[in-house]
Automatic annotation (TrEMBL), chains A, B:
Family label: Belongs to the HypE family.
Organism encoding this protein: Marinobacterium maritimum
Protein name from the UniProt record: Hydrogenase expression/formation protein HypE
Residue ranges annotated for the PurM-like C-terminal domain, each copy included: 172-324
Domain of life: Bacteria
One family name in Pfam for this protein: AIRS_C
Gene (UniProt): hypE
Record NCBIfam families: hypE
Residue ranges occupied by any PurM-like N-terminal domain in the UniProt entry: 53-160
Amino acid sequence: MTPTITDQTRITMAHGAGGRAMRSLIESVFIEAFGSTELARMEDQARLDMARLAAQGDRLAFTTDSYVIDPLEFPGGNVGTLAVNGTLNDLAVGGARPLYLSCAFIIEEGLEVALLRRVVHAMRDAAQEAGVSIVTGDTKVVPHGKGDKLFINTSGIGVIPKGIEVAASRCQPGDRIIVSGTLGDHGAAILQARGDLALDAELRSDCRSLHGLIELMLDQCPEIRAMRDATRGGVAAILHEFAEASGCAVRLFEDQLPVKPEVRGVCEILGLDALHFANEGKLVAVVPAAQADGLVARMQQHPAGLDACIIGEILDGPGGRVQVRTLMGGERLLDLPVGEMLPRIC
Amino acid sequence: MTPTITDQTRITMAHGAGGRAMRSLIESVFIEAFGSTELARMEDQARLDMARLAAQGDRLAFTTDSYVIDPLEFPGGNVGTLAVNGTLNDLAVGGARPLYLSCAFIIEEGLEVALLRRVVHAMRDAAQEAGVSIVTGDTKVVPHGKGDKLFINTSGIGVIPKGIEVAASRCQPGDRIIVSGTLGDHGAAILQARGDLALDAELRSDCRSLHGLIELMLDQCPEIRAMRDATRGGVAAILHEFAEASGCAVRLFEDQLPVKPEVRGVCEILGLDALHFANEGKLVAVVPAAQADGLVARMQQHPAGLDACIIGEILDGPGGRVQVRTLMGGERLLDLPVGEMLPRIC
C-alpha cells in the first residue's frame, strides 16, 4: 500500500529511504510539477539528444550551485525561484543558452509538503519561463536537527554558440563596466525578511533569470569581454575577480551606482556598502568603450535591464586593484571582504 | 590579508560568504586537490568541447545525486568516494561513458579542514581512477546545528555510444537477471560503522566505480536490456522498477543469491533481507537468456565482477510482481519496503 501525500503530510525519514514512500513523494510532488518525460522515465539519468546540443554551439557549459538561503520564502521569490534562476544565470553569463537542469533536494525530517510544493511550483514556473527542462533529480531526507528544512542543488547544462568568448581575463584598459540595474536588492530583502532590520521599507528580491537580456546583449555586442551575475559577494566580488584575472585595475564612479533609496537606507543603518550586497537578477558586463552607450540603451529596452548604466572603467593597473571615485572626487579602495557579511544569502 | 587554511582550521561562516576566506578555502583545498584547469579558471561554469563529446556518442547522459551518509568515513571509503563513484555509476548503468563531474559542498560550521581534505582527496583519487574530471563546483556553509558536518552533491555528464539502448522497460520474459557480486556489503558496513551492531565482523563497503566492468559487459553483449546499480533500496528496489517499467514479473532463486557470511549474520540479527540492503559497487543487469552464461564468465574476469552470477529470470507476468523461489522450493513475494529501513545509507 502506497502512502498518499497531501499538503498536510510532513516529510519522514521514509520519504528518503528508496521504498514506496519515496516513490510516492517523487511522483506526487516532483514529477507532477516538472512533468518532464525524461524525469518521468525514472531512470537514473536523463538522456539528451547530442545532435540537438551540437547544432546550437561548439561548447557545452556545465555549472552547479547549492542553495541554502534562510528564510526559504521571501518577497520576490523562494529558494526554488533562486535555485532555477541562479543556475540559469551562471550558464548565461558565460554566453551559454541554458537548456537543462538537474535538481537535488536535501529535506529535513518534519518539513510540511505544502511548503515543498510551493518551492517546487516556483521551480516549475521559473523553468517554464526560461524555456528550460528539469530532466533529472534526487531526494534525500536527513533527521530533524541535521539540516534546515530544505537545501536544493541545481546543476545546469547549456550550449555556447561558436564565436562567443566571454571571460574575466579578457578585460582591457579603457573598457567600460556596465551593470544591468539597481544594486543590493536581494541582500537587503533577505535581511528584511529575517527580521534583522527595524525598518518598514518595501524591499523585494530582484531574483530573475537574465538570459533573455544576455541574448539581446550578445546579439548587439558579440565582443562583450566578461560577464557575471553579481550574487554572493556582490558587485565588489565580481570586480575583484575581473581585476585579478585580467591583471588590470578597476575604477568605479560612485555617483553612477544605481541603488534604490530603501536599499541605501538599509546600507546606512548597517554601515555596509551596496557594492557588497548580493543580487539575484543583476549582471556586471565589461565591454569595449565604443560600444558601451549603445549597449546600455539597448539593455534599457529589456525588462531585466531598465536601470542599466555604466558604472566604471578598466584601467591599466595596478593589477587586481578596485578603486572608487567618490562623490567628493577622491579615490578609495574597494576591498574584497575577508569574511562573513551576509550568511546564507543564497 | 587572506587567512591561511591549515588542517587545524575549522570552517566558519566566512568560508561560505563569497569573500577572501572562501577564495582561500577553494584554492587551498578544492583546486589544490582536483587540479582541473576548468575549475582553476574560476569562472561560474565549465566549458566543454562539444566536438569531443559528439565524437563519442549520440546522447548526452546527465545525472545528479546528493550524498548525506552518516558516518562520513567508514571501512571501504568515505562520503567523497561515494559521491564520485555513485554518480559515475548512475551514468555508466545507462550505457554512458562518464566524463565530467560537478561537486557542490554544504559544510556545517565547525567542520575540521583535515576531514574535508580527506574527503576531497578521496574524490580526487576516485575521479582519477575512473578517468573523469571534476570541472565545476560550489561551496556553501551553514551554521552549526543547521547541517550535519558535510553534504556533497555531484552531478555527472557522460556520453552514450550509438546503438546502446539500456532501459528498464526493455526486459522481456525469459531474460536472465545477473548481479555483479555479493549483496548488501555497503549497508552492513555502514550499520557496523555506526556502532548499531553488537558484532565483531570485518565489514567493508563495496563502494567502487562500475564503468570498467560495464564497458566490458556492453562490449561482449550490446543487447543488455536493463542495468542499474543497486544502491538505496537494494536489489529489491531495482527489481521492482524493472518489473513495473516492463510490465513483466521477476523470479529470483534464493539459493543463487551471493551474500557474504558476515553480511548474512547482520541480516539475521536484524531480521532484514540482504536484498533490501544498499550496495555501492554492484549492478543488476537483465540480459537475453542465450547470452547470460557467457556474460557472467566474462564479468568474473574483471575485479568488479569476480562474484557475478545469475540470480533470477524475467517472467511473463503478473506485471510488477517480484517473487523469490525459496531454498525449500516454495515461492514468496518480495515486497518493496514502504518506509525507512536504513536511513542515510548514501
